[in-house]
Amino acid sequence: MNKLFIRKAEHEDLRRIKELHDDLLCVKYGHHFYEQLISGHGYTLLVVVLNGQIIGFASFRIEWLNQKEEITTQAGLLTLGIDKKYQTQGIGGYLLEKGCSYMKELGVSSIYLHALASNIPVHSFYQNHYFVHENTVKNYYHFDKTYQDAFVFRRRFDKKLHSHFAYWMDSVLEIFETCCC
Question: Which residue numbers delimit the N-acetyltransferase domain (predicted)?
């Protein structure tokens, strides 16, 4: 039986995480980015491990906002990816839900992310996980000598709705862990 689990990344994981980033993402990051993710100072980097090998990652940054004299927090989902060999098996959704649950436990009110405006499959993936398209940022990305627009998606945590969804999702995840991994 395959053993799949999610844990916080450790410093010795960075080489593999960078390999996956470079293979899966259009935006390339320098060494400082990865060091910052592992620092724990407002950042969380999760990895999916299957049979002892890292096959995916999700990185979050927690931000504090002062709105109408009330301090709230939100999280930015910076990166998320699953090794191409393991895509379309539900592992990315599993990682996303575990990451969202963890961010909610930390007290964030919402999670936002940027996605290439042209990447329709990614939009569907996030919308299937309760992220809503909020707006478009023109020329947000710059790679391959061109500028690309980004869609901003956000998932808000309504305590009443989320508690029912979390209960249901925990049941689904238990079944997934038992049957599929």
Answer: 4-158
Closest CA to 56 of 100, 6, 11: 6
Which residue's entry shows tokens 């009110």?
109
In angstroms, rounded to a whole number, what is the distance separating the alpha carbons of residues 113 and 132?
Answer: 10
The structural domain count of the chain equals 1
Which residues have a Cβ under 8 Å from the Cβ of 114 and sit 6 or more positions away? 137, 140, 141, 150, 151, 152, 153
The alpha carbon of residue 111 and the mean position of all alpha carbons in its chain are separated, in whole angstroms, by 9
pLDDT digits (tens, 9 = 90+) for 67-112: 666 677 899 999 999 999 999 999 999 999 999 999 999 989 999 9
Domain of 100, in residue numbers? 4-179
Decide if 75 contacts 111 (C-beta within 8 A): yes
Order the strands of the 110-116 sheet from edge to edge: 4-8, 43-50, 53-67, 70-82, 110-116, 146-156, 132-143
